[in-house]
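Feature request, filed as a ticket because there's no other form

It would be nice if the structure record came with a short human-readable summary line next to the tokens. Right now we just get the raw output. Example of a typical job, pasted below so the devs can see what we mean:
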Amino acid sequence: MPAIVLIGAQWGDEGKGKVTDLLGDRVDYVVRYSGGNNAGHTVVTPDGQKYALHLMPSGALSPTAVIVIGNGVVVDPKVLISEIDGLAERGVDVSRLRISGDAHLIMPHHRALDRVVERYLGSSRIGTTGRGIGPAYGDKVARMGIRVQDLLDPGILRKKLELALREKNQMLFKVYNRKALDVDAVTEEYLGYAERLRPYIAETRVVLWDALDRGETVLLEGAQATMLDMDHGTYPFVTSSNPTVGGACVGAGIPPMSITQVIGVTKAYTTRVGSGPFPTELFDDNGAHLRKIGAEYGTTTGRERRCGWFDAVIGRYAVRLNGITDLVVTKLDVLSGLDKVRICVGYEIDGERFDDMPMTQTAIHHAVPIYEELDGWEEDISKARSEAELPENARRYLARLEELCRCRISVVGVGPGREENIVRHELIPARP
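Raw output as currently delivered:
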């Protein structure tokens, strides 16, 4: 069986966790391949239980799937242990977790620098979560990162930490007037984490290769989304990794030819958290409606999400960039009650129309959306389980999204619950 990649097709928070959870009983492995605890997935089970996951793959709630944190993730061990304990307290079996020894660790100096640099930037800040993600990836690229496997060797851990703090303490103390970190205290803290995490650390590449060789199904779950990709997103207002499909190969260590399906998740409208361009952002009653009805507040930070109309330029870009084969449109129910709904079909920039993403940072900041307006619908669609049960205007809206994005819509979300979906095409066949 193949590897299947699950991609966010906007700026994140599209509902990837719900989709992963929906598919969890149909796959053998669920792999997180990028990001850190700056991301969050909210999963609501059929009995109404809500789980907020940050580092653990959303497949953690599957009773059978092996859950893997790949080498492309940056891991805050304190946060991960807290999640493991929280799930165990609620009766979730976490013994199937495997963590790549090559995943990099988020250290105290990463969190400290993330917060102080963001404050220092003032109005030019990126809008990070302050959890140390960017500095951890920066050290990885600078070849001075500390990895999960280093927890298993106290001598190596201390040596690497001493080298890192030689530079980072100078920055914290002399540049930003912050207290220097103590090598002994940090080493002791992280060796304590080592004892808790030791049973889960594995050579996850071989685990996944063997699974694919056996014909088992591997679902690769990205954090964040296409427009937050370091290379292909709205730079510099992006995350510090590659949540697009290419990042799945790098962040999990599997070959590209193993991937046979790419599922893109998009909301029926658009949101983003933090700073950066957002052409369809709304500042009127429609934006307030989307935020209130859609409960648009960050899973990880609690910050209000910026809300706007669906952007088909971004949708089409995500489909082409990732080779998306199936779209999942979530939160269609949030649009109920609006007299009119709009879709951005292109941009106007300095008098010129663009149907594709503009090349430059300046252009995207100056983009003015070109809208098509469709009639809305008043009906409550949360009970709909087939396309025929949707109002005619809702069906027209979906058909237009499908046409503009040039990709079939396979699943439509009509509520937050696991069962609140309309399945037009099965994403993964049910097990016999």
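Something like this underneath would help us a lot:
The mean pLDDT is 92.
The longest strand covers residues 340-349.
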